[in-house]
Every structure is written in C-alpha cells, then in structure tokens.
Design goal:
about 30% helix; disordered C terminus; alpha+beta; seven-stranded mixed β-sheet
C-alpha cells in the first residue's frame, strides 16, 4: 500500500459504519461524475451526487435499512485511488446483501470528483428484483437505470 492510500484510508473507513456513511459523501463533489458500470438496475452515468445517491444508495437503503462497506484493499496515487470493498446489509426480506465493489476514484485535492464503480451485478439485480419498495412498480428501477445508461469508455475502449 502506498503512503497516499494511508492518507486516504480514514475517508474510506467512514463507509464502514452506518452512522458515518453519509460523512463520507461530504467529501464527494456535488458535481461528481459517478458511473455505475454494468448491466444491472442501478447501472448508469450519474451527473451529480444527488442523482447518484437517489439512484443507488437510497434504492438499497429502501430495501435494507442501511448499507455499509468493509474496506478490503486500496491502491493509489495523489489524485487516483482504487478501493475494493464488500457491501454489508440485510435486505428487508432477511436475505444478505453483500456484493463486492471496486471504485476507481479521482480526487481534486481532498474531494472526489469522479468515480467509475464496479459492483456484483447478480447481487444488485437480486435485491432490486426481490424486494419491492412501497409505491414503486416492479419495473421502475430498471426503467430509470435504462434511461441513465450510457456507453462507458474504459482503458480498452477505442473510438
């Protein structure tokens, strides 16, 4: 682990407790570009923090009561950090919600301004399909994700 990771570690450790997850997001830019890569109901390109939180974290909270993250590994430089985490929650139907996450985070100073996130598609799809939220049609989360979905250029993408 690099020294940079040690400096950034306390920020990501805020994700480890339900009562400090929101404190983590105070260090995320309001205009963050956050892309959830994949083919699951929460996948898509989010253009700001509020859209990201409403479209992802709040969707899981509504189905579980809360989500925290167990930090497994970190790699990084001054401006980019990669974190590997396991989600920890129990869905309202009693089943565990425990996907693995990999976030590629770009910083400007101490603020996260861009994230490309990878998550276990099967686990995310499972909780969205299995656990309804009051007042939500079964296809609304999937339809919302489809509206956000964009092609995600990556290191292997060629124009």
């Amino acid at each position: 682990m690099t020294r940079t990771c040690e400096i950034r570690r306390p920020l990501f450790q805020l994700l480890g407790e339900l009562d400090t997850v929101d404190k983590f997001f105070e260090q995320v830019s309001d205009d963050v570009k956050w892309t959830m890569v994949g083919r699951h109901p929460l996948a898509g390109a989010y253009q700001n923090k509020r859209d990201f939180l409403d479209g992802t974290l709040e969707q899981i909270r509504a189905r579980s009561g809360g989500l925290r993250f167990d930090l497994k590994q970190m790699y990084g430089t001054d401006s980019e950090v990669i974190v590997v985490m396991e989600g920890i929650a129990t869905a309202t139907d009693g089943e565990p919600y425990d996907p693995f996450y990999v976030w590629l985070c770009r910083f400007e100073g101490d603020t996260i301004v861009e994230v490309q996130a990878y998550v276990d598609t099967r686990v995310v799809t499972g909780i969205i399909d299995r656990v309804p939220v009051a007042g939500e049609s079964p296809t609304s989360a999937a339809a919302q994700a489809e509206a956000r979905r964009t092609r995600v250029p990556g290191p292997l993408h060629r124009s």
